[in-house]
Write a structure and sequence with these properties.
Layout (H helix, E strand, L loop, with lengths): L1 E6 L2 E8 L5 E5 L2 E7 L2 E4 L11 E3 L5 E5 L4 E5 L11 E5 L6 E6 L4 E5 L2 E6 L4 E3 L3 E2 L5 E3 L4 E3 L6 E4 L5 E5 L4 E5 L15
Antiparallel strand pairs: 1-2, 2-3, 3-4, 4-5, 6-7, 7-8, 9-10, 10-11, 11-12, 12-13, 14-15, 15-16, 17-18, 18-19
Length: 191
């Protein structure tokens, strides 16, 4: 059956229902929703007001919504939230600045102000710029030095940490417990 409405001097479809079949909903004589044997098809957009959730799963485990101040994806069910892709790019809302870029069988890159600062590589990681540890240790790539953040912080070298360089607050120390300590140079000056 059909439900029609009369507008602008003509009849327009509002609802079409087929026995043992589909149901169609119309807006301004344009089909917007149709039921199918395996679900439904929307022609156009699906609008949800603030704090109205799109819920997925038998127990509404996955929710996608906007609460008026931020957008949220909440996965509260068993398992984990999984994103399957060959390449993943996370950008700002304007889609003109990269925040994270991940490539299958490749790197994961982190950006600051659209400039790549951290990249995973096959042998490890590459840092562009300086690296600061929260205890105050610092690698200054541009000036070419390493700063350990507090007194008695040690730079340890060797598989068993045999060579230690540190400052104890009063004096600087070189401590070698792994055997002999060699200093090789054409000229050695010690004050």
């Amino acid at each position: 059956w059909h439900l029609l409405n009369f507008a602008s001097d003509s009849w327009h479809d509002s609802i079409k229902a087929t026995g043992n079949g589909n149901v169609e909903l119309y807006h301004s004589n344009s089909k917007k929703l149709e039921t199918l044997s395996d679900g439904a098809e929307i022609s156009g957009h699906l609008y949800l007001m603030d704090s109205k959730e799109l819920k997925l799963g038998n127990s509404s485990d996955l929710k996608i919504y906007h609460d008026g101040s931020k957008s949220l994806i909440t996965d509260s069910g068993t398992g984990h939230l999984e994103i399957n892709t060959n390449n993943l790019r996370v950008q700002n809302a304007a889609a003109n600045e990269t925040l994270i870029y991940a490539t299958e069988n490749g790197s994961v890159d982190l950006y600051y102000d659209n400039v790549k600062k951290f990249e995973t590589t096959s042998p490890g990681v590459t840092v562009t710029g300086d690296l600061t540890h929260n205890a105050g240790s610092y690698i200054n790539n541009s000036a070419g030095y390493i700063q350990l953040g507090h007194n008695s912080a040690e730079l340890r070298l060797g598989a068993s940490n045999d060579l230690k360089l540190y400052h104890n607050g009063t004096s600087s120390q070189i401590n070698d417990t792994g055997g002999e300590l060699y200093i090789q140079s054409d000229i050695v000056n010690i004050r």
